[in-house]
Amino acid sequence: MRVLAVHADVIVMISRFWQTTCTAVRAGDEGFVIDSPVYPDELEALAGVLEQAGFPVSGLLATHADWDHLLGRIAFPAASLGVGESTARRLSAEPGQAQRALRQFDEEHYVDDRKPLALAGIQSLPVPGRLALGPNDREIELHLADGHTADGTAFFIPWPGVLVCGDYLSPVEIPWISPDGSVEVYLATLERLRALVARADTIVPGHGRPLERDAAVRLLDEDAAYLRALLDDGAKAPLPAGRRTGAQRRIHDENVARASTLPPT
Ligand SMILES: [Zn+2]
């Protein structure tokens, strides 16, 4: 797990698996941890890393309900977990799904020292909305970011100028349309994110290193062009340059199948 300081009040930890990011933000004696690293040793190290860096943990947040972003409770079992209302809906509609996906991952990767993941008592947060943090009227903004999946929330942290956007704007992963996602909805989210990126100095994607604003705008344009080509040309849509690996082509094949089916009404 890599640990990067992006601002006096924000550090980002990057998991060895899929470069999944975990972002800690603090204000005074309060702090939130958004999303999570994946491997048990990384989750075990999390509390120590944050304590040493002086980042208090008053609560956990998650950008969406995919299992790889939901593991903070393994590191902080007693902490409250807040998610945008679309994610709360998805979690209550598919109870046990994250645990099943986690178990499948652990079996595939021979992980046998996983502590149980408890997702009871999740707090549903209004989106768009704001979340107060610390003593000086600091607030984190919540914005809808769906399309990758049926749910999703981007967290904009104004005072350090950091946008934590979930599984969008990744330098290592092309746009990925999940079975419950939608190309059209994803494109609408990208345009919503464009306005937030313009206000941000640092963009933390769900997977991959944090980006500066200009690099995030370039990725946003590439991703939108890819998705529009996917709608127009299906399988023939060219993958964004720099992300044309075998793994990304497999995601592309999934996207092609989903782009050719009509979104649910
Ligand atoms: Zn993810």
Shape: globular
Mean pLDDT: 95
Our count of helices gives 7
Q: What class, by secondary structure content?
A: alpha/beta
Strand content: 15-25%
Give the strand tally: 13
Give, in order, the helices and strands: EEEEHEHEHHEEEEEHEEHH
- Small molecules bound in the structure, each named once: zinc ion
- Widest β-sheet, arrangement of strands: 1-2-3-4-5-6-7
- Name the helicity range: 25-40%
Radius of gyration: 18 Å
Low-confidence blocks of residues: none
Give a quick account of the main beta sheet: strands, pairing sense, barrel closure: 7 strands, mixed
Termini, distance in Å? 41 Å
Characterise the protein shown here.
- Helix 5 (183-199) packs antiparallel against helix 6.
- The relative contact order is 0.13.
- A hairpin with a 6-residue loop joins strand 2 (10-14) and strand 3.
- The chain is of the alpha/beta class and 265 residues long.
- The chain contains 7 helices and 13 strands.
- The radius of gyration is 18 Å and the shape is globular.
- It has a 7-stranded mixed β-sheet with strand order 1-2-3-4-5-6-7. A 6-stranded mixed β-sheet has the order 8-9-10-11-12-13.
- Bound molecules: zinc ion.
- Residues 66, 68-69, 167, 206-207 line the site of zinc ion (ZN).
- Residues 66, 68-69, 167, 206-207 line the site of zinc ion.
